[in-house]
Amino acid sequence: MKMFGRLSLVVATLLVITLIASGCSPKGGSTTVKELSGAGATFPYPLYSKMFDTYASATGVRVNYNSIGSGGGIKALTDKTVDFGASDAFLTDQEEAAMGAPVLHIPTCIGAVVLSYNLDGNPALKLDGTVTANIFLGKVVKWNDPEISALNPGVSLPDLAITVVHRSDGSGTTSIFTSYLAAVSPSWKSAVGAGKSVSWPAGVGGKGNDGVAGMISQTKGSIGYIELVYAVQSSMPFASLKNASGTFVTPSLASSAAAAAVSLPDNLRIMIVNSPGKDAYPISAFTWILVYKEQNYTGRTLAQAQALKKLLTWMLADGQSINEGLSYAKLPASAVTKALALINSMTYGGTTIP
Amino acid sequence: MVAQPSRSDRREAARERAFTAASLVAAVTLVATIVLFLVQLFITSRTSRAAFGLPFLWHSEWNPVTEKFGALPMIVGTLVTGFGALLISTPFALGIAIFLADYAGRKVAEPVKYLISLLGGLPSVIFGLWGLFVLVPIIGKFEVWFGKLVGSKALVASGTTGVGLLAAIVLLAIMILPFSASLILEALLVVPTELKEGALALGATKWDTIQNVELPYVRRSTVGALVLALGRALGETMAVTMVIGNGMKMPTSLFDPANTLASAIANQFLEATSPIYIGSLIQLALILFVIAIIINVLARVILRRGIQQ
Predict the structure, then answer these.
(1) A219: which chain B residues are within 8 Å (Cβ-Cβ)?
(2) Are the beta carbons of A205 and B274 separated by less than 8 Å?
(3) Which of A63, A134, A352, B258 supports an S-S bond with A52, CB 3.0-4.6 Å?
(4) Residue limits of the PBP domain (chain A) (predicted)?
(5) Domain residues for A197?
């Protein structure tokens, strides 16, 4: 009995200490927030890790970002286990409904998807939306098809079968590419549609950018889509595309940024594919950070909301200078203005976050 | 007068009881894990089961955009690659095991055995890379040659990539070879020497002995080894993903891009967001689980029949 008495005393003491400690920590955290967490898209991961690294040394606030994929990021934000999510595709109405509260889409950079190919002599190819859609629909099956040669006078195209390579995993890249095809080709829109994974009418699938790039580089006559960043880093050839205003545009940081330099809706929840801009590369898209508009949820403190707001504001100001060094296009000034307005519309308990 | 159990006896008995309890817990945990797996897969796939019902098993459309899902192409892909690999690798596995057990001297057998276990321990992504960069181009050439041989314009024209069902079958055959070979070898090594010597004494040749004494003796373990190897082939993900072409349509030839259940799940789960899409992927896992169970049960039934005869 005596022994039990002593034991229970120890247990009780431990319990009290734990309780006090756990009761203390949120109070301690309410003055300074040293850590934020986010999860989502893999595409902007190199950019975000550099940005957050710079941010930590400038302000002392660490940001943990898990690049688990856009889908995972959306799930994590829905479950409210992170401060922000990140996605290459904007939320569908269904996903937004599942969130239970309004969510803001804050763009951070612009990505471009390029058409890379493997042909002898690496000729510089020109393509337009219709031909690209027909190739991926499996309707144009030879490189010397009149549809392709009409766009490429002076280039000798071989009598070779076209092997289409697409992503086998669900990805924002696929979402951007198929959104473009759906925007330029009615037959693509009705037969396949747009999404992170689609039912491909033709071709073989590779996992990730590297899987697609690997398949392209070892198959003569292949064509596939990869991110601009990846194509530049692995020096793969890519095609110029005819944009909505009829100009052939080579994908680059400048031409993908130009795609966003048009009039945008205030909520920035838009695919900027097939942009009307004169110098715009047509397969360009925002990648977004997702946050709840109302920050007072599941016991979040005002300090957490303030820290998040500060981080997002920084990413659109000083943070943008990091973009181009890592081959991500900067947001044009007009998009930054709208994005900042979105950040400033965040609330805590119904009032603007100071 | 009954002798009192000594102190050390009592301690012995307590230890015995504790050990029995611990073993029981371990055994129950194993059973519970398997049952819970099934229950969990069953519960989390309810959205897709509710939406598609049993026809999920024989519908061959897989369209995440319209959210129409059917598992048939992946079921076919899984079974064709698994059994195809088994068919190719089994003769080699038997040959290797018999050679090492009965023909090779120690000096040859030991290093070869070591190499086999090394091959078995290689991470599958390495097999996948080798498959993509070495095997796939070879199969691509074979495809063109075969297309000309049978006069199929379609094969020559369209399928020169080499990725597809056949590449996955050959790669899997190589990957499961170490498992079946080393398990059959272990079995052959424990065939009692008296049996072998008896057969030889009766005037049987070495091949007679192998055929009539050793192989019947190891039949049970061989089937066991092959089932294990098949299990590995059915569940292999990474290497298959890299060479199978990941087509979600029903394959019509061995050169077509296809997909397996495991590879489809690994490819699409991360970015799947809608409940029906996730449910359908989980139902693929459930189907894979059930296939594994059916194959194990079948193997047992075959074994029991073999023994009764």
Answers:
(1) 140, 160-162
(2) no
(3) A63
(4) 26-318
(5) 112-282
